[in-house]
């Protein structure tokens, strides 16, 4: 029996998030908190549902950034140990689940409140809505630029990025509602903006939750064709059987594969070719076990998953 463990140049389970990524999250957090306070105060003073709805969504931005920073710090400082051999990398996935849940809850509240206001819309001054919406849009754009690069590397940062992006869109909705209220005296614009903001957020929250649940349930990565991986391994000269092929993601960008190959040929050559085949699919973190035909028969009788 032979075994091989391969590492490529992708992100390794022991690799820590950079300090720069954490600093970007902290800067974004400070900007969002400052604007959140402004939006809540103005929203209460003028009685704007759109502003308060946007503030509620921005509160989830704050929570998302806080949890994202916490997850990244844990991954940065939480080294592997005998109890946590992968460190704290899954903290990012749990963060994404909580973010999605908060987004759905806030969206439901906004939607219900906005529908109630449509029947009896209160008078809301348009100019303060416009000014605050412009300030909010500027703040969101700055934060998006700060954390954009990290959103492609981390599920925690992707969740935060999506929430800030959604908030930028909702700021545009508030801005339009303010213009309609100021120019035409259409008081329902505030409630309509609240409804549209809610409906815009929901599918994005569901998508984020789906991505996180895919990792938590150890489903194969969406971008990996498992059947093709199996076929490529089976095509290696000397490989008689491919079994116990498991591919999953530890967290964003950390795909892992384990597989048993049955062969009577040279183990080292089969191992080398198998590593190359897996690397072609972006699977650099691989554990490969080489079995003889006798050992394969033993696995068939003892392994049930």
UniProtKB/TrEMBL annotation:
Residues 26-216 form the Cation efflux protein transmembrane domain. It is a multi-pass membrane protein. This is Cation transporter. It is found in: Membrane. Belongs to the cation diffusion facilitator (CDF) transporter (TC 2.A.4) family. SLC30A subfamily. Keywords: Ion transport, Membrane, Transmembrane, Transmembrane helix, Transport. The chain crosses the membrane at residues 26-52, 58-75, 96-115, 127-147, 159-183. Gene3D superfamilies: Cation efflux protein transmembrane domain. Residues 221-291 form the Cation efflux protein cytoplasmic domain. GO terms for molecular function: zinc ion transmembrane transporter activity. The keyword Amino-acid biosynthesis does not apply. The keyword Oxidoreductase does not apply. GO terms for cellular component: plasma membrane. InterPro entries: Cation_efflux (IPR002524), Cation_efflux_CTD (IPR027470), Cation_efflux_CTD_sf (IPR036837), Cation_efflux_TM (IPR058533), Cation_efflux_TMD_sf (IPR027469), CDF/SLC30A (IPR050681). Pfam families: Cation_efflux, ZT_dimer.
